[in-house]
Amino acid sequence: MSRPILPSGDHLQDYDDEEWNTSSSESSSEYDHDPSGAFVVGTNRTCNATGPTTPASPKPNSGLESMIRMMSLTGGSTTNVFTQIDEGTYFDSLPEKDAFAQIIDSYRLRIEDEYVFGGDAGGLYAGEAPLPDFRRYLTRAEKRGGVVPKWWSREKRKACEKRAVDRAQWSDVNSAVEKADIVEHYGDSMMPMKLRMLPEKVEGSNVMGR
Questions:
Q1: Is the pLDDT of residue 77 over 90?
Q2: Measuring CA to CA, which residue among 135, 152, 147, 122 is closest to residue 202?
Q3: Any alpha helices (H) in the chain, and if so which ranges?
């Protein structure tokens, strides 16, 4: 869904919510500013990055474990999903097309977050063809272990890559995406948290290096 151009920073407040508060009580205020420059909000927008900043060094992923503990203590209905993500079994029971879509969208949301909150313009946000960057993401996911489904293979990877650049699909790496788009598309307010946890496992940290 197309959206109007907004002044830089107008949509950032929704990032500092329950999904990141659980990672670190000291880090929530870090999400209340926009270091990245102007951009166009929507599923098909261009980004005008001023250049990447030096990324923080990866740290142990204690935030993901904290989220799971918090959901367990509060009796959250999605606790099992987060446990499955942590244990690397989340995709195993999903239909192939759903697993592909969520792997693709986890990448799309990650590079959106890196651009908005870290000023790091990569792939689509750097004006490059997005497929090579997505392929690098898949390679890191394969090497990390516990991310891609058990039925993953070279052929399945090729099928996922093909779907990722299919402009007839909503989950298309040629189009940028933000949190509100994810919630609207999936009809699940928790989906952005799930999709952010997946690349945390791939990269070893969230976009703030925690």
A1: no
A2: 147
A3: 18-21, 62-73, 79-87, 96-118, 130-144, 154-164, 179-186, 191-203
